[in-house]
């Protein structure tokens, strides 16, 4: 029985799982850490689903009832790697059995749901394994470079301070912050393209000089 659960948004991410969740091991560990980190830094929270494809169709992940505890351990260990520390009350892990064509719930196909609750700013960005990740425009951004992180923090503090002085809800400023971060990332992309073009020119000039030196 094929079900749909909607579409991906900036607060919802789908991951189709083609192997058992337990066997994914480090892959599951890293994916959970990066996305949870990104949701925490958005301060709006979000939900990560394993066993749902990009179109929103429920496929299920191979995970028996007996393997749930092992998968929970992987998830908890991953989230404990995030700094600053994330309290267990900041997220929820839920296993939902998939309905089979027979109309009965499957014994080994489940959708794994990891819900991250909205958070208040900790005065710094969360990081996973020392790297900063953010959720923006429905995609995961990161790991962010030092310049991007510094710019984000500076802009965040300035925007929040201005909003507080104006008596505006701080949450409304998140959209502005995302736009500013996007602009900064676009600047970096243009700069990298310019550097690459300049490098190609230098390499071409070097080859030309080498040919001339042979005469």
Task: Fill in the keyword field for this structure.
single chain; 215 residues; alpha+beta; Methyltransferase, Cobalt-precorrin-4 Transmethylase, Domain 2; 2 domains; five-stranded mixed β-sheet
How is this structure best described in words?
This protein is of the alpha+beta class and 215 residues long. It folds into 2 domains: 12-164, 2-Layer Sandwich (Methyltransferase, Cobalt-precorrin-4 Transmethylase, Domain 2), CATH 3.30.950; 172-213. It has 5 helices and 10 strands, in the order βααββαβββββββαα. The chain has helices spanning 21-24, 26-42, 68-80, 146-166, 173-213, and strands at residues 12-15, 46-50, 61-62, 82-83, 91-99, 105-116, 127-128, 131-132, 134-136, 139-141. The strands form 3 sheets. Strands 1, 2, 3, 5 and 6 form a 5-stranded mixed beta sheet that branches. A hairpin with a 2-residue loop joins strand 9 and strand 10. The longest helix is centred in the C-terminal third of the chain and has 41 residues, at 173-213. The radius of gyration is 22 Å and the shape is extended. The mean pLDDT is 79. This is Schlafen AlbA-2 domain-containing protein. Residues 8-139 form the Schlafen AlbA-2 domain. Residues 181-215 form a coiled coil. InterPro entries: Schlafen, Schlafen_AlbA_2_dom, Schlafen_AlbA_2_dom_sf.
């Amino acid at each position: 029985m094929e079900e749909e659960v909607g579409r991906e948004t900036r607060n919802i991410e789908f991951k189709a799982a083609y192997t058992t969740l337990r066997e994914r091991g480090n892959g599951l560990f890293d994916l959970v850490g990066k996305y949870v980190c990104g949701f925490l830094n958005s301060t709006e929270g979000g939900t990560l689903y394993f066993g749902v494809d990009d179109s929103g169709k429920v496929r299920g992940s191979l995970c028996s009832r007996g393997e749930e505890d092992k998968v929970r351990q992987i998830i908890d260990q991953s989230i404990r790697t995030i700094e600053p520390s994330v309290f267990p009350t900041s997220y929820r892990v839920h296993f939902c059995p998939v309905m089979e064509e027979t109309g009965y719930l499957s014994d080994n196909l489940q959708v794994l749901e990891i819900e991250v609750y909205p958070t208040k700013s900790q005065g710094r960005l969360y990081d996973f394994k020392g790297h900063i990740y953010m959720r923006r425009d429905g995609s995961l951004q990161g790991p962010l470079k030092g310049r991007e992180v510094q710019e984000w923090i500076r802009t965040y503090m300035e925007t929040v301070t201005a909003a507080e002085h104006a008596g505006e809800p701080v949450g409304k400023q998140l959209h502005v912050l995302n736009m500013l971060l996007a602009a900064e990332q676009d600047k970096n992309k243009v700069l990298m393209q310019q550097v690459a073009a300049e490098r190609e020119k230098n390499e071409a000039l070097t080859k030309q000089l080498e040919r001339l030196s042979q005469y």
